[in-house]
């Protein structure tokens, strides 16, 4: 039988020690409840102290996290600036490579043209040298013949001793001179072949010598004019090369200017896209901070309610978050009702019952306030999640635009 049944039997039998035993049992029960209350108060104080320590630790960790996030943002900005400088250097290198290739092509073309012109000039000089050698040989042959004829005329001055060349020889000499020189035909053809037999003086020979001298003088004049023409041609070729070089340089500068304009426009678009991307990143970081604060507030509220919050592997929808909060609220209500029932069972008196009812009312008010707060937190978390989604969408669009500009 239980102790309660024994006490009831003693009370019913009305033994002498029933009242004393009942009072003693009441004192024991009171002492036991007071001991339990002290233990619970001690545990509650220890829990509060631990909560304060955890709050201070969480605040310190939050400060460290904010400092680390600021450092990460600064490093990301530095990396972005270095990447922009690297892209600028790469663009300049590409432009320099294109200019180098065009300059090499123009230099190759100029070398080919120079070689072609040098070959033509060498051929012209070679032909002129050949002509000059032939003229010298002809003049030497004519001089030797004239010297031989003059010596023969001086040795024997009689008309019969000096024999003029035959008509065929005169014609052959005249034809050779005409074939080589091509000028002075009428002067040479004035004396007839029949006169060569009749003349016994040296006047035709002197005329021929004078004509040869005059022809040599004309040949030297033509040769000097050819040299002057060659010099003028060389000067004109140099001027043409300079003009071609200036034209190539002007074309290269024009192409470089156009490329610079296009590159500057592309860089301006890229900088604008980068600025927009940085703005979206800053906005995303701010929204993530707000979301982290909301989650920390929800976790603190659930921890204050005595419910261990679950850590999802990935972000949930606002509806799932609201359902989880409602489930935790239901658990809290069940626990509060159990606590109130235990207190009412332990006390078992009217005053205790009144206190239990007051506790139930206070618990209900706290439940209502906690539910309102959780509703607010859920609405704020939904707003923050929607802002995060909008920010992520804008960030993706900015990244796509930046990639398009970079590809262009």
Distance between the termini: 94 Å
- The general outline is rod-shaped
Give the strand tally: 0
Profile the largest sheet. Answer: none
Domain ODAD1 central coiled coil region: 28-127, 197-304
Protein name: ODAD1 central coiled coil region domain-containing protein
Keywords: Coiled coil
InterPro entries: ODA-DC/CCD (IPR051876), ODAD1_CC (IPR049258)
Summary of the model, kept short:
The protein is built from eight helices and no strands. The protein is an all-alpha fold and 408 residues long. It has a domain at 127-244.
Features:
8 helices, rod-shaped, ODAD1_CC, mainly alpha, 408 residues
Describe the structure.
- The chain has 408 residues and is mostly helical.
- It has a domain at 127-244.
- 89% of the residues lie in helices and 0% in strands.
- Helix 2 (18-155) packs antiparallel against helix 6 (203-305).
- The two termini are 94 Å apart.
- Residues 156-165, 181-201 and 349-354 have low confidence and may be disordered.
- Keywords: Coiled coil.
- Residues 28-127, 197-304 form the ODAD1 central coiled coil region domain.
- This is ODAD1 central coiled coil region domain-containing protein.
